[in-house]
Amino acid sequence: MTATRLDGKAAAAAIKTELAERVAVLRDHGVVPGIATVLVGADPASQLYVGMKHRESEAIGMNSIQVELPAESTQEEVEAVIDRLNADPTCHGYIVQLPLPKHIDTDRVLERIDPAKDADGLHPTNLGRLVLNVNAPITTPLPCTPRGVIELLLRNGYDLAGKNVVVVGRGVTIGRSIGLLLTRREINATVTLTHTGTTDLGSHLRQADVVVAAAGVKHIVRAKDVKPGAAVLDVGVTREVDPVTGKNRVYGDVHPDVAEVAGFLSPNPGGVGPMTVALLMTNVVEAAERATA
User: Fold this and answer.
1) pLDDT at position 160 over 70
2) For this structure, is 120 an active site residue?
3) What is the Cα 184 distance to its own chain's centre?
4) How confident is the model at residue 284 (pLDDT cuts 50, 70, 90)?
5) How far apart are CA 67 and CA 72, in angstroms?
6) pLDDT for the residue 293
7) Is 66 assigned a catalytic role?
8) Structural domain boundaries in the chain
9) Comparing 30-117 with 143-273, is the CATH topology the same?
10) pLDDT at residue 242, rounded to an integer
11) Which CATH number applies to 30-117?
12) Residue 233: strand pairing partners
């Protein structure tokens, strides 16, 4: 068996085409969805990631707002930018690029974001609303990466209803938040949350119809622990220096041999990553639609 590839680039491209149509409708009504980023310092990886988000959002007709601050900026200066974006009617959603410099209180900054403009979908208020909302339509921003995982499966015709999903990793970005979406009645999956402290992780994985690997541990999921035909999504990232070239290499949480056992496989890179960016833009377009309803 060779797993069917869950192509995140293709699915993300389809989402962006759909978003471009929605943006055009909003523009016809005099509203240009505005997405903003706040970057403190000059970390090359963060600059690259932020630049990509703006290029993709501009390509579908969105208004791109970039705020860059020097690394030595004070807590008060960063918070003043947050307050300005909260009050800016041309900005419908934004992110603060992490990590922030160590002297900045990250939690204080993130909690200052207007929940309605929370493009990442990880504000405590929005996560709390998601905890309380099992049945009703969602009218708040959703966590981008978990939403991307689910959307990637659905767009490939995978029905999650009744499936046993094992999530590996307990981070806020994916592990702690994805179960809130998967267990909503409209999805109706059963979720087991595991992590690096789980005793006999393999026994849990072998029962899973779907594995979401997001621990950030190189090749923690191997073929011997995957149920034949399971859907496996590789989300975690580990960076190591290649001893030969001296360059950084990126590894996922899923060992390459899983491709010979799984029924569906989302690779890393090229799987969930592009979906995260597409769903980030979706959150902002939806916020603009809500603001004009």
Assistant:
1) yes
2) yes
3) 18
4) very high
5) 15
6) 78
7) no
8) 30-117, 143-273
9) yes
10) 85
11) 3.40.50.10860
12) 212, 266
What's the number of CA atoms in the CB half-sphere (13 Å) around residue 155? 21
For all residues of the chain together, what is the average pLDDT?
Answer: 95
Helix-strand-coil split of the chain, %, nearest 5: 40, 20, 40
| CATH code given to domain 143-273 | 3.40.50.720
Of the chain, the end-to-end C-alpha distance in Å amounts to 49
Q: Hey, what are 82's tokens?
A: 């947050």
- 120 alpha-carbon distance from chain centroid: 7
Length of the chain: 293
For the segment 116-137, what is each residue's pLDDT rounded down to a tens digit?
999 999 999 999 999 999 999 9
Which residue in 16, 97, 227, 234 is the catalytic one? 97
Beta bridge partners of 240: 249
Residue 17: CA count within 13 A, CB half-sphere: 6
* Exposed / middle / buried, residue 30 (Cβ in 10 Å: 0-12, 13-18, 19+): exposed
State the Cα–Cα distance between residues 160 and 158, nearest whole angstrom.
6
pLDDT of residue 1: 63
Point out the catalytic residue in the list 16, 117, 118, 120: 120
Question: How many CB atoms sit inside 10 A of residue 182's CB?
Answer: 21
Give the SS3 label for residue 100: coil
Tell me if residue 28 is catalytic.
Answer: no
DSSP 142: -
- CA-to-CA separations, 260 to 38, 165, 190, 249, in angstroms, rounded: 42, 20, 25, 23
Give the tens place of pLDDT for each residue, 32-88.
999 999 999 988 888 888 999 999 999 999 999 999 999 999 999 999 999 999 999
Whether omega before 269 lies within 30 degrees of 0, making that bond cis, reads yes
